[in-house]
Amino acid sequence: VSATPNPTQQAKRRAGRHRRNTPQLVPFPSPPRRRRHADRAEGGGMNCCRHVNPFRVCAGLRGLGYLMVALVAAIVALSYYAVVVYAWGPKLLGGGAAAAGAAAILAAFHVLLVLIIWCYLMVVFTDPGSVPENWRHDAEESGDPASSTSEEQGSAPRYCSRCQNGKPPRCHHCSVCNRCVLKMDHHCIWVVNCVGARNYKYFLLFLVYTFIETVLDTLVLLPDFIVYFQDESRRSSSPGDIAILFLTFVLNFAFALSLLCFIGMHTSLVLSNTTSVEVFGSKRLLWFFPLYSTEDLHNIPALRGLEFPIRSDAIV
């Protein structure tokens, strides 16, 4: 007859079987307290950096642009006074060949000034081109990846995370205007606007006419400028007029040099990238004015800024 185990022994046996059947969990060692604080601080700093947009500082350039507009107006006023009122206007009263030459110079000055102001206002107040809402690339809409060109050709489907919209070829997001601009060239603080698909022609004409005007002002003020430094006996002007003459000559000469380099750069970009018809339109009579014909705006895709003809690499 086997002995019956007492209740205490039965409880110990049940506890032993429970320990053998239950998996033992090994606690994962927690990092030191200092490390946890460091990780928390580092993660918080990275999260803060993700929400910081350094390009918001660029929005201050818009305020600087208004100062540049005032500076342009001041330079135009100085040039007008120095050329028309001080240097060549009084020669109209003398008669003869001098009056005829003065009339020709003043006529050219005023024609160029009208063209400059016209082009400048067109650049300032013309929208450079914005992406239509919910715009998508043709390849995305058709679902055919073979119809999209390579990124080197600038036509691969892109997306702007800031505007939450598609980005056509040559389109870029302007941090100053806080929107995408079609065929964006740059944001010009001198015109308080972006230079893009719809005002690029006006911008180029503004550069060209301003360069011609500054060269003209430099040349017509050069005789008085030389007399000022060579013959003291002929200095009959007031100190204020002399200061305006000196300042106008220096400013126009400096702007002529800088604009020459700028025009050369943009000319090379235009010649290497697009044709003159694509940029300036098919109506040759309108090439020299900040205007487009209705047919050009409707038929030339580059003027709309959403699509561009791509030249084949096989064509030399």
From TrEMBL:
Ranges for domain Palmitoyltransferase DHHC: 157-279
Sequence ranges of Polar residues compositional bias: 1-10
PROSITE patterns: DHHC (PS50216)
Membrane topology, record value: Multi-pass membrane protein
Enzyme nomenclature, EC number: 2.3.1.225
Pfam annotation, one family: DHHC
Bias type Basic residues, positions: 11-21
Positions of transmembrane segments: 64-88, 100-126, 202-222, 242-263
Catalysed transformations (reactions): L-cysteinyl-[protein] + hexadecanoyl-CoA = S-hexadecanoyl-L-cysteinyl-[protein] + CoA
GO cellular component labels: membrane
One term of GO molecular function: protein-cysteine S-palmitoyltransferase activity
Region (Disordered): 1-43, 136-156
UniProt keywords, alphabetically: Acyltransferase, Membrane, Transferase, Transmembrane, Transmembrane helix
Compartments reported by the entry: Membrane
Family assignment from sequence similarity: Belongs to the DHHC palmitoyltransferase family.
Notes on the domains: The DHHC domain is required for palmitoyltransferase activity.
PANTHER family given in the database record: PALMITOYLTRANSFERASE ZDHHC16
Protein name (record): S-acyltransferase
Species: Eragrostis curvula (weeping love grass)
